[in-house]
Write a structure and sequence with these properties.
The protein is an all-alpha fold. α5 crosses α11.
């Protein structure tokens, strides 16, 4: 694909974000006159429409963009780092590890110590999972082995999360936490946005500059070394960026799965399979996809709103099976 075609597709991806953003703002249980609400908001007129826009819909839409960027960017980074087309934060147990540590902190009262305990816990769980998987990937190069390790981590952390919920001192909060674990952006406010954004932004700053390193890694570690890259430092910074992005996303939205798997694979042909260039495309595509998914969730009729994590899992499950069949030669 030529550079002009790549630029055209990237431009279309960028344009899809404001289109889905305004559709998202117009979606909800009540109709909202967007223009007048924006005018009231900008004019500091505390009307009902302005409050709905600024306190409910705008934070939710901005969170969808930030989380979409973070998850898709993490997926593209992991696939490039592990040189594994099936790698993503949720499939490898990274997201579920963040959920486990966050649930432990919430249920056993440690969250009351400070505001940053929950995101720090989620990011710590994600960092431990990524470091563990990466250390094993150095010994076991097979794609199937790495995926099976991720499935095992998912199973173990899910079981431990259920155990923590069963023995939690406040059983009346089980249903609320259960829905949170499914992945949702509903009832999120500016507090969650300001809470998670600094960590996500730091993760982006750590991942994007590693694009040339990922290009070199696609040719092998020896080639990356010969080009002057410090492998340990570059890998550590990339792992830290993935942990920050995934952990901060999990801390405010729960486990929204398959964004990190679907988006890089859909967009990889547009960049001629260049892992470094894929980072920017994945970030834009992830924001667009999660905005669209969360908008669809709000427009599906029913007694209560579906969790956006259910929608992404319904899309991602068949997509994952398709990828397995497509890459079955790598799984031998």
């Amino acid at each position: 694909m030529s550079k002009k075609q790549q630029q055209l597709y990237f431009g279309l991806l960028l344009l899809s974000i404001p289109a889905f953003f305004f559709w998202h703002l117009m979606s909800g249980p009540t109709e909202l006159p967007i223009i007048s609400a924006f005018m009231d908001f900008l004019g500091e007129n505390s009307s009902t429409d302005a409050l709905i826009l600024s306190e409910i819909r705008l934070p939710r839409a901005l969170l969808a963009i930030c989380i979409g960027i973070s998850l898709a960017l993490s997926g593209a980074a992991l696939q490039g780092l592990l040189i594994n087309p099936l790698a993503s934060p949720d499939l490898l147990g990274v997201s579920q590890s963040g959920v486990l540590v966050a649930v432990l902190v919430l249920y056993y009262g440690l969250a009351s110590l400070s505001w940053f305990i929950v995101p720090l816990a989620a990011m710590s769980g994600a960092l431990i999972a990524v470091a563990f998987i990466f250390s094993l990937a150095g010994k076991y190069q097979g794609a199937l082995t790495i995926i099976l390790i991720g499935i095992a981590i998912n199973a173990i952390t899910s079981a431990l999360t259920s155990l923590a919920l069963n023995f939690a001192p406040n059983p009346f909060a089980l249903q609320e936490i259960y829905f949170w674990m499914l992945g949702s952006l509903s009832n999120r406010s500016n507090n969650e946005l300001f809470f998670a954004f600094p960590f996500m932004f730091l993760g982006w700053l750590l991942i994007f500059p590693r694009k040339h390193f990922l290009d070199a890694m696609s040719l092998g570690e020896d080639t990356a070394l010969s080009l002057g890259f410090n492998l340990k430092r570059q890998k550590f910074l990339l792992i830290l960026g993935v942990a920050l992005c995934t952990g901060a996303s999990v801390a405010v939205s729960g486990n929204i799965s398959f964004i990190g798997l679907i988006v890089p694979h859909l967009l990889r042909p547009l960049v001629n399979n260049e892992p470094g260039r894929l980072l920017a495309y994945s970030a834009v595509g992830g924001a667009s996809l999660l905005l669209l998914a969360d908008t669809l969730v709000q427009n599906i009729p029913g007694p209560q709103e579906l969790q956006v994590g259910v929608i992404t899992a319904a899309l991602g499950g068949p997509f994952f099976l398709l990828l397995i069949f497509k890459n079955r030669h790598l799984l031998r």
